[in-house]
């Protein structure tokens, strides 16, 4: 299965639309502007989201008819499904609470857990520089690496932080530490 994973960064503008993808997954308010097969809202809909992001979105979400994956299901949001945190943690052999610092982390872990073949990210940019974003960026990189280590193709739009290891041409040109003369991409292509 080939998915597009959408977040709110600048490279979201490069998302080509749903054609060519089996499913499109997005987070939070992207459901208001994009047709999604799965919407991830990992902030608690009662205890965190209204204070974190304002009550308007959580009220709107009560009438949303698409699938919503979230941290805790409440009856006010009838299309919500609880993220299978215990099953996912067991699948990866991780203790609960480790390496889940953003909704994108949950989306990537869920993609691996459910057996997707390709993940194409748009808007997963993490460009601001602050301690929290550094943690978020590192955690997303770990989950992208977990996907890639399982043979899942991960790509990202140019301009985000992850294009340096998910875009073949960028990787070959910039990521061959230790070589005095970098091999030409054309010579390495099989």
Give a description of the structure:
- Helices cover 35% and strands 15% of the residues.
- By secondary structure, the chain is α/β, with parallel strands linked by helices.
- The chain has one domain (2-42, 83-188).
- A seven-stranded parallel beta sheet has the order 5-4-3-2-1-6-7, covered by helices on one side.
- Helix 4 packs parallel to helix 5 (131-149).
- 32% of the residues are buried.
- The model has no long low-confidence stretch (mean pLDDT 86).
Provide the fold topology.
Layout: E1 2-6, E2 23-27, E3 38-41, H1 49-53, H2 55-61, E4 68-70, E5 80-82, H3 85-92, H4 103-114, E6 118-122, H5 131-149, E7 153-156, H6 163-166, H7 168-174, H8 185-188
Parallel strand pairs: 1-2, 1-6, 2-3, 3-4, 4-5, 6-7
Quick tags:
190 residues; alpha/beta; 7-stranded parallel beta sheet; 8 helices; 7 strands; globular
């Amino acid at each position: 299965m080939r998915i597009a994973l959408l977040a709110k960064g600048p490279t979201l503008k490069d998302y080509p639309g749903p054609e060519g993808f089996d499913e499109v997954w997005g987070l939070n308010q992207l459901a208001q502007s994009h047709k999604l097969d799965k919407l991830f809202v990992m902030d608690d809909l009662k205890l965190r989201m209204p204070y974190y992001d304002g009550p308007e979105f959580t009220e709107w979400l009560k009438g949303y008819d698409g699938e919503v994956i979230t941290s805790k299901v409440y009856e006010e949001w009838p299309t919500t499904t609880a993220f299978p945190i215990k099953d996912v943690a067991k699948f990866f052999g991780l203790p609960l609470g480790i390496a889940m610092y953003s909704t994108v982390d949950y989306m990537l872990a869920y993609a691996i857990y459910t057996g997707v073949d390709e993940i194409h990210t748009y808007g997963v940019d993490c460009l601001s520089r602050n301690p929290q974003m550094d943690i978020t960026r590192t955690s997303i990189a770990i989950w992208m690496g977990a996907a890639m280590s399982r043979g899942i193709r991960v790509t990202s739009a140019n301009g985000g932080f992850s294009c340096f290891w998910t875009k073949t041409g960028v990787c070959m040109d910039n990521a061959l530490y230790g070589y005095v003369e970098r091999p030409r991409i054309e010579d390495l292509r099989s």
